[in-house]
Amino acid sequence: xxxxxxxxxxxxxxxxxxxxxxxxxxxxxxxxxxxxxxxxxxxxxxxxxxxxxxxxxxxxxxxxxxxxxxxxxxxxxxxxxxxxxxxxxxxxxxxxxxxxxxxxxxxxxxxxxxxxxxxxxxxxxxxxxxxxxxxxxxxxxxxxxxxxxxxxxxxxxxxxxxxxxxxxxxxxxxxxxxxxxxxxxxxxxxxxxxxxxxxxxxxxxxxxxxxxxxxxxxxxxxxxxxxxxxxxx
Length: 233
Description:
- Keywords: Amino-acid transport, Cell inner membrane, Cell membrane, Membrane, Transmembrane, Transmembrane helix, Transport.
- There is one protein chain.
- The protein has 233 residues and is mainly α.
- It has eight helices and no strands.
- The chain has helices spanning 8-40, 45-60, 63-89, 99-125, 128-136, 141-171, 183-194, 197-226.
- Helix 2 (45-60) crosses helix 4 (99-125), helix 3 (63-89) packs across helix 4 (99-125) and helix 5 (128-136) runs antiparallel to helix 6 (141-171).
- The longest helix has 33 residues, at 8-40.
- 26% of the residues are buried.
């Protein structure tokens, strides 16, 4: 029953790669989300327009289309630039875009748009009186953000942030279409070779569920941490 015909170790490595893609993409998405939220709340109209276009376009295009567009489109653009450079300077360079990097950047870019809306909503939920009081005390903008705004934003943002993380985790399976050997791609190749799909895909399901279970525990801890001092309604 547990004979994986020599594919077990490679699928196990694929699970680690999936986690790497998920964690790095999430970090990029959170960073872009914070920047996007601040841009949408900015007093400058140009920043609000750029952020609005970003969140609207990204959320309106299927993730798979964006993944293929960025991976193949970016390679074409890079090739044209490199060819121009080779012709101008008589060199023979070639740049092949890395599938892992593309997968992380694309997923991070996609979920950054969702995170921007999550953080924007969380920011608007924070009492403006507390920020005004901090300004009155002479606190700098950075200190206000770290000491007052961010902790309270996280309390409101965590439900949406956790939901985005769960969806992002499942979206990592898309990296298999650009040639990255994650556990989904490896399980598909193994099941195709030995014609036993359940033997290889059920472990993949178990790994995803295990990550989800651990994520729920971590999110519950963070909710308790950022809800200290607040009474449940």
